[in-house]
Amino acid sequence: MTERIVVKIGSSSLTSDEGGLNRDRISFFANELAALQERGYQVLLVTSGAVAAGFRRIGYESRPKLVHQKQAAAAVGQALLMQAYQEAFEAYGGTGNGVAQILLTRTDFSNQRRIKNARLTIEELLRQRTVPIINENDTVATDELHMKFGDNDTLSALVANLVQAKHLIILTDTDGLYTEDPRKNPAAVRIDRVAQISEDIMKIAGGAGSSVGTGGMRSKIEAARIAMRGGVPAFIGRVTEPGDLRLAVDGYGRGTYFDTSLHTLTMKKQWVGFHSQPMGRIIVDDGAQKALLQGGSSLLPVGIRAIEGDFHSGDVVEVTNTSEQTIGRGVVNYDAWQIKAVAGLSTDEVRRRFEVSRIEVIHRDDWVTLS
Ligand SMILES: Nc1ncnc2c1ncn2[C@@H]1O[C@H](COP(=O)(O)OP(=O)(O)O)[C@@H](O)[C@H]1O
Ligand SMILES: N[C@@H](CCC(=O)OP(=O)(O)O)C(=O)O
């Protein structure tokens, strides 16, 4: 299979704080991407910048905060963004076949049919040497039920897993993850390589640095974590000079590399953990939490404290501890009403009272840790 590279460019790299697109930057990035294509890679771009590109044009003084104003600005800005990329790729020439717009929401990823359709479309575009340019579909994305990406970092990681990319390259205005936000502490030091995203790594990653960016370093690290779990190595950093993107792909970029050796999940587990929409919630006690997180065990009825939602066997549910912290997700082997009947009972007791084909409420093969 031809190797695929997913590149994500944040608003802060494409626009100014005052709003509007920086054409020179767009043309620079288009050249960098087209050069990768010329080297034989299939290239996908996840780009932000629609709101930042559109808010002045539509008449707002600064980046709007109200949802419908942001969506209106994005609708104007998305057209400007695509036009700018189209012109920039055309000006490069080369052997590529232009660009294509793809707008996705989180809901699309949790529906197997929709996401399969999106994947097939993307694969056809790549076969035709066209660069899919992907952004969140801001007009329909909603905050409810966490169905909105908000920033595009998570979206880029899900896309990288979807197309089984060789690399996810997240470009921003800082050259990688520092020991502290370098805007706040100039003495902060860059971390060159991360093998595992620990609590400490999460703690040092702060919020957005500019008035146009949204996710900050935290959402980029989250994205790296999703990509790593899907077996896709990630890079977070900056490219400013011609040839920098190629250096980043080759392992010599100015930024932080996130390795994958410890983290590969099967396609099924990727779907359970990151694409599916949980249909309910199971609250477990401390013993079950420990067994799931440290013992690599399945979830048994005895550890269940309570459940929420009317789910069925085969659905994905979220599992939380008694402090409401999410610890993971899994596919249940019972309907919700059946779990109510067995919750808290020992395995012997369940077997004595009911005829069950599988004792595990969630088998460890169908479980993904998210804490
Ligand atoms: N530990 C950290 N290391 C590097 N950057 C950090 C860190 N914590 C917070 N940041 C901030 O994250 C910003 C990049 O995120 P963001 O503004 O959302 O950019 P983008 O628009 O590219 O997604 C940087 O400008 C920086 O100020
Ligand atoms: N979909 C939105 C993304 C918003 C955003 O700011 O994202 P990012 O710059 O990646 O933190 C847009 O195109 O404006």
TrEMBL record:
It comes from the Bacteria. It is found in: Cytoplasm. This is Glutamate 5-kinase. Pfam families: AA_kinase, PUA. Residues 280-363 form the PUA domain. Its main location: cytoplasm. SUPFAM superfamilies: Carbamate kinase-like, PUA domain-like. Keywords: Amino-acid biosynthesis, ATP-binding, Cytoplasm, Kinase, Nucleotide-binding, Proline biosynthesis, Transferase. Catalyzes the transfer of a phosphate group to glutamate to form L-glutamate 5-phosphate. GO terms for molecular function: glutamate 5-kinase activity. It comes from Paenibacillus spongiae. The keyword Flavoprotein does not apply. It catalyses: L-glutamate + ATP = L-glutamyl 5-phosphate + ADP.
